[in-house]
Design a protein that fits this description.
Helix content is 45%, strand content 0%. With 60 residues, it is mostly helical. The protein has one domain. The longest helix has 10 residues. The chain is globular, with a radius of gyration of 11 Å.
């Protein structure tokens, strides 16, 4: 299993110029997982990665 990183997913979605890489993905994940420890590291499995890719809009 490959762990996925929010910054990596954000780049795949076209968010290459964020001041805080992966913030758009982390914001989405926080809404979906409100019990995740604050400031905790996000290591995503394939199902979570697919959810992010399907629900976070691509940057135009």
């Amino acid at each position: 299993m490959i762990p996925y990183d929010p910054a990596e997913l954000a780049r795949l979605l076209g968010y290459n110029d964020e001041a805080r890489p992966g913030k758009v993905v982390r914001d989405y994940l926080r809404k979906q997982n409100p019990d995740h420890p604050k400031y905790g590291r996000w290591v995503l499995d394939e199902a979570q990665e697919a959810d992010v890719m399907a629900n976070v809009p691509r940057k135009r």
